[in-house]
Amino acid sequence: MASLAMRIPAVQRGEVMESSEQCPPDSAQQEVNPVFLQQLRELDIPEEAARQALLHTRNVSAEEAAMYYFNKLENEEEGDEDMMFKMVFVVNMELSMGVGKVAAQVGHAAVALYQAMQEKNTWREMAWKWDHAGAKKVVLQGTNMAHLLELQALAMSLSLPTKLIQDAGLTQVEPGSSTVLAIMGDEEMVNNVTGSLKLL
Fold first, then answer.
1. Per residue in 112-139, is it b (16+ CB within 10 Å) or e — as a string?
2. How many beta carbons lie within 10 A of that of residue 107, not counting itself?
3. Nearest by Cα to 151 from 98, 118, 189
4. Phi, psi for residue 88 in degrees, rounded to 5
5. Which of 25, 58, 181, 197 could, after both became Cys, cross-link 140 (CB 3.0–4.6 A)?
6. CA gap 38, 3 in Å, rounded
7. Is the Cα dihedral 149, 151, 156, 160 positive or negative?
8. pLDDT tens across 76-90, in order?
9. What confidence score (pLDDT) does residue 76 get?
10. DSSP track, 45-85
11. pLDDT at 77
12. Residue 70 phi, psi dihedral angles, 5° rounding
C-alpha cells in the first residue's frame, strides 16, 4: 500500500514548487479583464502581448501587467541589443517598370508583408520591434522572376517572412508578373539572402 505521504499533494506536505516547474497560464482557457486589456492597448502594447501580460499577472490590474510587459521587453532588448531588423524589397529589373510603377509595387509589398506578419505571434513581435526601431527599409535590384523565387526560397529556409507580389497586369507589365519580393528579419540574416544585391 502506498504511504500516506505519497497520496498527499506536494503543496499539502509543505513542499514548494519552483516557479519554473509550474505550468504557465493557458491563454486558451482563461479570459482577461477587458477593461485592463483596453488600458494596456492605450499604452501601445500589442494585443497578444497585453493578454499574455494579464494572464501572467493573474488579471490583478493593468498596472501590474504593464510593469510585467515593460520589464520583460527591457530584458529582451538587453539580450538582443545588437539585433536590428529591416525590410528589404527586391525589384524584378527584367520588367523595366517605370519609377512610379516600382514605387507602387514596393508599397504593395510593404503593406502585404506587414499584414501577413500579424497572423503569427513571433512575426508580429518582430514587426513591432522593427516599427519601433525606425522601420528600416531597403530597395534592391533583382535580375528576373527566377531570381526572386530563388531568394524567396532561401529566405523561407531561414524562417524569414516573405511576400512576393504578382501584378494584376493593368499597366506596364503582363498579368501575373512577379514584380517585387519583400523580406523581413534580423539584419544579419536578411543580409545572408540579399547582401550581394545592388541598391536600386
1. ebbebbeeeeebbbbbbbbeeeeeeebb
2. 13
3. 189
4. -115, 150
5. 197
6. 51
7. negative
8. 655 555 578 999 999
9. 63
10. --HHHHHHHHHHTTT--HHHHHHHHHHHHHHHHHHTTT--E
11. 57
12. -70, -35
Predicted confidence at residue 12, as pLDDT, reads 38
DSSP conformational letter for 22: S
Which helix (H) or strand (E) segment holds residue 103: the answer is helix 99-117
Longest dimension (CA), the chain: 84
CB 155 within 8 A of CB 162: yes
Cell 527599409 belongs to 137
Query: Is the Cα torsion angle 108, 110, 112, 115 positive or negative in sign?
Result: negative
Instruction: Give me the chain's average pLDDT, please.
Output: 83
Contact present, 160 and 189 (Cβ < 8 Å):
yes
β-strand pairing of 85-92 with 137-142: parallel
pLDDT at position 179 is 97
